[in-house]
Amino acid sequence: MNKKRKNASAKPPKEEWRPVDHQFDQLNKTFINTELRGLYALCLALLLLGVMAMIWMIPFPQFDFLVRNNMHTFLNWGSFFIAIVIYCYLKLAPTLSYAMLFTIAFMSFLIVQLEYIERDGGPAVWLVGLIMAVIGLVGLIATTKREPKALTPKDVYQLILIGPIWLWSFVFQRLKIKY
């Protein structure tokens, strides 16, 4: 009977983990230095914001039905990018995808502000996005060099793809919110 109680309170076997648990476990084993997580968050945010800004600024076809309904400003390639990102995160961890949705909404607000600045004679949004993406990527690569073990490009790629919700998972754990 004692064995049953011990097994009931133990972590589920890895075979019962969700795919996101496997991803996070792999990231936890790869990116060991917990002191670097703040830098990862900053670099990933810059990279994502920069990529979003560049995709946002790709010219989108003006469909007559959108123009007639005054909805042509709400649809661009960035909208499709956001939908794909949120869908992928939703499949992995629904609660964390909501956090990413709010994060991306804030980034979208910043991109619109950059559009206003460009309209008033400021730098082009795509150029600002490119600079942010390059700074984020260079910062990310430089930060990964400070890890105790050497990382492969696949590890960095996984950090770029899954890293945002992985970092959100630490916030959720700290707030004791199940994801």
Quick rundown:
This protein has 179 residues and is mostly helical. The protein is built from 8 helices and no strands.
Protein topology:
Blueprint: H1 2-9, H2 19-30, H3 37-56, H4 64-68, H5 77-92, H6 94-119, H7 125-144, H8 153-174
Characterization of this structure:
The protein is mainly α. It has a domain at 43-59 and 82-179. Helix content is 72%, strand content 0%. It contains 8 helices and no strands. Helix 3 packs across helix 8. The relative contact order is 0.18. Residues 1-10 have low confidence and may be disordered.
Give the H and E element order: HHHHHHHH
Mean of pLDDT: 87
Largest sheet: none
Instruction: Kindly name the structural category.
Output: mainly alpha
Helix content: over 70%
Assign an overall shape. Answer: globular
As residue ranges, the low-confidence spans are 1-10
The first-to-last residue Cα distance is 31 Å
Number of helices: 8
How many individual β-strands? 0
Cα-based radius of gyration, to the nearest Å: 20 Å
Name the beta content range: under 5%
Question: Which terms summarize this structure?
Answer:
single chain, mainly alpha, 179 residues
